[in-house]
Amino acid sequence: MLILKNISKTYKNKKYGNTKALENVSLTIEKNDFVAVLGKTGAGKSTLLKILSLLIRPSEGEIIYNGKNINDLKEHQIADIRKNEIGMIAQEFALIKNYTIRDNILMPLELTELSKKEKLVKLDKLIKLLELDHLNLKKPVKKLSGGEKQRVAIARALIIEPSIILADEPTGSLDEKTTVKIMEKFKELNKLGHTIVLITHDRDLTSYCNRIIEISEGKLL
Asked: Structure pTM?
């Protein structure tokens, strides 16, 4: 599904000099993988995530996404892939606090040609899957618990039916009990056929994954 070939990324800075964030990274993500990318702060996880999500381009190397070489695509084509095929789950949820549960989840579909009925069918399916059906969907997300917010964030990522889900420290601000619930939900989603890449510094979370990739000082160990 996603192949990185000899990827390096150097950030250039005239004042402080160049910083090599990634060096010669090669990685293959198969369909229905559940992969943990494990590393300490400063190891290169964030840069790797941005490259996997096509937010930035590498300084060297190739990205092959579903058979397409990203180097051969124009910016609007890359933006379409990000918008339609990659589900992002941020560490701090990245929800709009004053928006309702419903509006936050449906936000990625705003510019699509789906009818209102089609959108609501997708919404209803995810609400049940992620066990949010006990909540009033008109409730602002700022009134939700941390675990509920994270499930809303997961629903928002899934609403586009992405080819791959990229989760950036998704339990970083949650307590232990809620963390277990969220990771069990990821495991369930993987069993349903979703491809998931989990970015984390927490080795305990890797027990939920099928494969562990460790990164240190910009290199895969």
From this structure: 0.90
